[in-house]
Amino acid sequence: MISLQNILRINSVSSGLTGFLLSFFPNKAAEVFGVTGGFPFIATGLFLILFAAFVFRVSIDMPIQLNKVKIVISLDLLWVVASAIAIPLLVSEVSSLGILLIAAVMAWVALMAILQSKAMKTGKNTTTQIH
């Protein structure tokens, strides 16, 4: 199994890259999603960049503080729930590719939450500590 530290780093990198793309190319994102206006993409991107920084910080703390990992998992699950709610609400407003991308990211984030939770519960990562 991948260590908790590495799962957190994968989560951080994928969130940061997505945030960067959304923040710096909002008009392209709007085009892909079939909408006008880039502000929602900039705002989402900035949130993801901040989230990525937090997750990376959690991953480098030694020992890893499990209470902070629980915050990361909770935020991941909140993203999944928000995406599941957004898809049916946006299906008539966003392109098919946009809906597919929302669903794909939702699945990826759910996977991150599952892997982080499993790694945290197995306790195989000797660099973890409950605070």
Compact summary:
The chain is 79% helix and 3% strand. By secondary structure, the protein is mostly helical.
Task: Give your account of this protein's structure.
With 131 residues, the protein is mainly α. It has one domain. The protein contains five helices and two strands; from the N terminus they run H-H-H-E-H-H-E. Strands 1-2 form a two-stranded parallel sheet. Helix 2 packs across helix 3 (39-60). The longest helix has 27 residues, at 96-122. The model has no long low-confidence stretch (mean pLDDT 93).
Characteristics of this structure?
single chain; 131 residues; mainly alpha; 5 helices
Which structural class should the secondary elements be placed in? mainly alpha
| SS strand fraction | under 5%
- The number of strands is 2
Sheet having the most strands: 2 strands, parallel
**What do the pLDDT scores average to?**
93
How is the secondary structure organized here?
Elements lengths: L3 H21 L1 H8 L5 H22 L3 E2 H25 L5 H27 L5 E2 L2
Parallel strand pairs: 1-2
